[in-house]
């Protein structure tokens, strides 16, 4: 489990491709202070497992499903990536619940500035906007952010200077892709309400159901 508070920007040292899988080696500093084999690290919002590490870098495997579902396959040597260690149970919770399981890749439609703020408008499938609410939370490339505005097939973010500096989002522009993870609480709520509605409908006695059961 993560919080979406990016700890540092790492640099991709190498990328080894094997069909639809990858091995990423990332240079970092802060997150390596207490790293162990098997630890979970969020790389651009994707929960990955440490397989090797030194005092200056760590390596992770990217499986075919993750390769297809995220934008990690578009990285190249030298790319900057957002990094966050899995949250300690006694840690401070600064963002929101982030699982590191990306829902889909989205494209930045446009960006613009107003004084110190950078606005980012992101296009999403129209059936996904139901998971978004103004002033609600969304994870973009592993960064916990507040939704500024929602439309049918897009939403807008307002990045403060700290976020622009501390994450890779400050350097992204129109046409760039980002990993999106919606608030897991919204998805659980949808699942619960759908299940309740289905169960309610299943318990209702209708003429058609009686016919199916042989009463007519």
UniProtKB/TrEMBL annotation:
<feature type="repeat" description="Lumazine-binding">
    <location>
        <begin position="97"/>
        <end position="193"/>
    </location>
</feature>
<protein>
    <recommendedName>
        <fullName>Riboflavin synthase</fullName>
        <ecNumber>2.5.1.9</ecNumber>
    </recommendedName>
</protein>
<feature type="repeat" description="Lumazine-binding">
    <location>
        <begin position="1"/>
        <end position="96"/>
    </location>
</feature>
<feature type="domain" description="Lumazine-binding">
    <location>
        <begin position="1"/>
        <end position="96"/>
    </location>
</feature>
<keyword id="KW-0808">Transferase</keyword>
<dbReference type="InterPro" id="IPR017938">
    <property type="entry name" value="Riboflavin_synthase-like_b-brl"/>
</dbReference>
<feature type="domain" description="Lumazine-binding">
    <location>
        <begin position="97"/>
        <end position="193"/>
    </location>
</feature>
<keyword id="KW-0677">Repeat</keyword>
<dbReference type="InterPro" id="IPR001783">
    <property type="entry name" value="Lumazine-bd"/>
</dbReference>
<comment type="subunit">
    <text>Homotrimer.</text>
</comment>
<comment type="function">
    <text>Catalyzes the dismutation of two molecules of 6,7-dimethyl-8-ribityllumazine, resulting in the formation of riboflavin and 5-amino-6-(D-ribitylamino)uracil.</text>
</comment>
<dbReference type="Pfam" id="PF00677">
    <property type="entry name" value="Lum_binding"/>
</dbReference>
<keyword id="KW-0686">Riboflavin biosynthesis</keyword>
<dbReference type="InterPro" id="IPR023366">
    <property type="entry name" value="ATP_synth_asu-like_sf"/>
</dbReference>
<dbReference type="GO" id="GO:0009231">
    <property type="term" value="P:riboflavin biosynthetic process"/>
</dbReference>
<comment type="pathway">
    <text>Cofactor biosynthesis; riboflavin biosynthesis; riboflavin from 2-hydroxy-3-oxobutyl phosphate and 5-amino-6-(D-ribitylamino)uracil: step 2/2.</text>
</comment>
<dbReference type="GO" id="GO:0004746">
    <property type="term" value="F:riboflavin synthase activity"/>
</dbReference>
<dbReference type="InterPro" id="IPR026017">
    <property type="entry name" value="Lumazine-bd_dom"/>
</dbReference>
